[in-house]
Design a protein that fits this description.
Distance between the termini: 25 Å
Oligomer: single chain
Number of domains: 1
Strand content: 35-45%
Number of helices: 4
Number of strands: 9
Helix content: 10-25%
CATH class: Mainly Beta
Order of helices and strands: HHEEEHEEEEEHE
Strand order of the largest sheet: 1-2-3-4-6-7-8-9
């Protein structure tokens, strides 16, 4: 998993090493993320790290879909990268930031496959146990007047789609679907 992370996000590894010499241990997360929906699970959660002068975030998430929601129990492991496009300040205490990003997920269960089963025609389906997701959203950072157990809460809302859906819509040319979009929301709880 670490080599996968280092391969897809080498700037994160080097950025964390530089920042940790000043701030502390690189492996300690800056926040904990909890997310509902978004093609990475009915509910997902995990540690998150800020880098690139707090304009980028990388999360390592575990996602879960219970059987009553997905007709099967599904577990996913995701690396999610979010990039802040701009920050609009509101009264020195709040901000609003449009974001965009991508994630790469791995589903190890029996509902996905790395090799296409022989019952399907060649070239008809692609492997689906590793998939990418693209998203666009907005987030805000709320800092409480007094620091309690956490220093800030960052709620967010996103519109996302699977990268395969975008590809198939481009190939289809005429029969494009709007139903390829899904929504997610969640929050980051900062230490």
């Amino acid at each position: 998993m670490l080599s996968f992370f280092a391969f897809f996000c080498p700037e994160i590894v080097s950025a964390q090493i530089v920042e940790t010499e000043v701030e502390g241990k690189w492996y300690l997360p800056d926040y904990i993320k909890t997310q509902y929906a978004g093609n990475i699970g009915f509910i997902s959660f995990g540690p998150g790290y800020e880098w690139w002068k707090q304009n980028a975030q990388t999360d390592i998430l575990y996602g879960y879909v219970p059987e009553f929601e997905g007709d099967a129990t599904i577990h996913t492991f995701t690396i999610k990268n979010t990039f802040r496009l701009h920050e609009f300040c509101i009264k020195n205490r709040y901000n609003l930031s449009p974001v965009l990003g991508f994630s790469v997920s791995f589903e190890p269960g029996e509902n996905s496959y790395a090799r296409i089963p022989s019952k399907y025609p060649d070239g008809y389906y692609s492997p689906n146990n590793i998939y990418g997701c693209l998203f666009l959203g907005v987030k805000t950072n709320i800092t409480p007047k007094k620091e309690h157990y956490f220093s800030a809460v960052e709620p967010y809302f996103e519109i996302n789609t699977l990268a395969d859906y975008v590809f198939y819509n481009i190939v289809a040319q005429e029969d494009r679907e709007i139903s390829i979009l899904s929504f997610s929301f969640g929050f980051n709880l900062y230490f």
